[in-house]
Amino acid sequence: MFSYAARRLASAVPTILVVITIAFFMIRLAPGGPFDQERQVPPEVAANLERAYHLDEPLTAQFVRYLGNVLTGEFGPSFRYRDFSVSELLADGFPISMQLGVSAMILAIVIGFSAGSLAALRRNTASDMAVMGVAMTGIAVPNFVVAPIMTLVLGVWFALLPVGGWGGINHAILPVLALALPQIATIARLTRGSMLEVLRADFIRTARAKGLSEYATVTGHAMRAAALPVLSYLGPATAGIITGSVVIEQIFGIPGIGRYFVQGALNRDYTLVMGVVIFYAVLIILLNLVVDLLYPLFDPRVRHD
Amino acid sequence: MPGTARQLLLGFLVSITIGAGPALAGGELHLGNGAEPESLDIHLSSGVAEANIQRDLFEGLIAEGPDASLIPGAAESWDISPDGTVYTFHLREDGRWSNGDPVTAHDFVYAFHRGLDPATAGSYAFILYPVKNAEAVVNGEMIALGNLGIKALDDRTLEITLNAPTAYFLDMLTHHMAYPLHRPSLEEHGSAWTRAGNLVGNGAFTLAEWVPQSHIKLVPNPHFHDAENVALDEVWYYPTEDEGQELQRYRADELDVSYDIPADQIEWIVENLNDEYRNFPYLGVYYYGLNTTAAPFADNVPLRQALSLAINREILTQSITRAGEIPAYSFVPPGVAYYQQQTMDFEAWDQSARNDAARALYAEAGYGEDNPLEIEILYNTSDNHKKIAIAIGAMWKQLLGVEVTLRNEEWKVYLASRDEKAYQVVRSGWIGDYNDANTFLDLFLSDAGTMNSTGYSNPAYDALLKSAAMETDMVARQAMLEEAERIFLADAPVIPIYFYTTQHMIKPWVHGWVDNIKDVHPSRFLSVSEH
Questions:
Q1: Of the candidates B121, B252, B431, which has its C-beta nearest A163's C-beta?
Q2: What is the SS3 assignment for B200?
Q3: Min CA distance, B443 vs chain A (Å)?
Q4: Which among A97, B86, B418, B453 could bridge B81 via Cys, Cβ 3.0 to 4.6 Å?
Q5: pTM, whole model, 2 decimals?
Q6: pLDDT in tens, B18-31
């Protein structure tokens, strides 16, 4: 298993290099630059700015310089947030994004999996219909619609929870819920489908035939097998939560790194965009590896030798 | 001497404004502030959000009162030489940095040198160009900073020499580029000098906390010369990029003042929260620039005028933008200091008379039913810009038969297109840098480079602005600027559409807030009552 992990990590290095190269040249291809603004600056001022940030050098020289910096773990100063380095912004924001994302993920798995299993076991009953109805709505309504409605009702009308900002656990409830909703819905649907399939499988019939109680059959055998598609979905779910956080952090005024994705690109904050891209590329590669390493625990047919 | 008269006026204003608000002890003020500051470094920032915070942290030679009128700041008085080019400032004796060090003339000299140094790369360095040799320092021609027109005659006397009498110079000194800096703390902390704990300012407040994308918290500076009249205990600034969410935070009492309001909810606000809604004229104009360097607008004044006449600005502001904007028939907004607003003749006409004139001019320009003008409007992505462009396109089409296409570009792409003049008609906006007509008119000097995005060039206009810049007599100067704008409006290189207004929501427990054209509200004059 360790050699498998090591091989996977080694193969990630060229992937990340390709990501860096493509991202670097793509953002430079976009018209406009980090220091363009409504009020055009005189040419000598623009020249001073470009010199200070090495933007006056040829693009290839800038690329080599950037790559060198990244290898030493330095992402450079942000072009837009000029008092901070990209590394500082990521270091400040990531723990918050992670709390938000991990909480949303746990919530999505727990609720989604339970609701989906329930729906499968009570197939074609009212509770099945209810769960699936809610799930369909959750998938269909985007969270930038759900979030303002939740804040209006719970934050403004009933004044139960804060509308924005980040601090105590109170601040986390609405954004975590808004972020988790679409994932809860997807996971519930996935679980229901795979659970129905598993319940018809031979090994479940065997378990029942040898006299196991329904409870033991479901919890001991069916759930483990039914979890496999959900486990595979964790990769895309992570990506969904990361992109969802771009919107959610903006709406709730949460100081995470999700908003740097969009803001950085719109501001042509070259170093910040690169920093976020590299950071997320590494994160997603690692998470995918973790999922693959977990797989054998759930499915004995999969082994990484 | 002009300086003395102004000082008397300023003193008078100070006395009435300070007496005005109930100075209550204590309280926290929570302000929506638009964007996350790009920097708190007075030389690196360029936006309004940053300037609001810096105004609380620093104080220039001249400060701004609750209504944005000029009041003595770090300087308690000043003399102006008869030719208007040498200003001598006398610093107040009790001026202190937030660590207790005295504020000296050398701190201003140091700050001006740093702000203009090419290595600092300040994007607003050009605002100091009226100072003698400032431009030569920025463009690298002059390395020796000793020749810059700013000198400390002693610890409390500062002399600033200008290239030419600059009528708006005192107003300009309220800009963050003209604040002083505490040299030892910059030398100690380097680029981290703006962090909480490192930042030493001479304003009414100091920086207690800065969590990027979350908030900035300020607390009173005990060494500030007017500390006894500062009422607030804490001032919190929040980045509020989404106006819809800002309004919800305001309604949930998480914010006491909003930076803006969502345009699509204006009717709801007027119906439900009208007492807390403030709408006030701002030093800015929304306009369409016409590319005068290429067909069809080059050398075609009748066509430009026809398009301007054909726009019904009242309908646009009443039915499309609907947030109290003022229809614009001039480029310089109303209410600018030392200036009488100039307007295009047709302001007094009704729209049908304008339409007749538009049709006649359109025909004179060589266009008609069988030969319609084909034109493209460029605007940056925004619902508001889009609605306006559609409405204007429809007005042109309906009245004149102009074939209009719309081109929508993302902000930075749009800026690049505009600066390369890759457009025919471009949506534009301009907010004055200081309260003077010059900040609007000098955009269109023929040698203004890319700033002159329409490519307008008229020697008579240039000559008037250049003589106005050298004029010490305020009345004569005003006449020159006004004549220049009349020429400009007649040439119609731009189509003014409306004047901006600033819009805020303000809780009833916030006191001392005075609406003003610069939208400047120093926290030292604000207070909050029990709520």
A1: B252
A2: coil
A3: 10
A4: B86
A5: 0.88
A6: 434 444 557 999 99
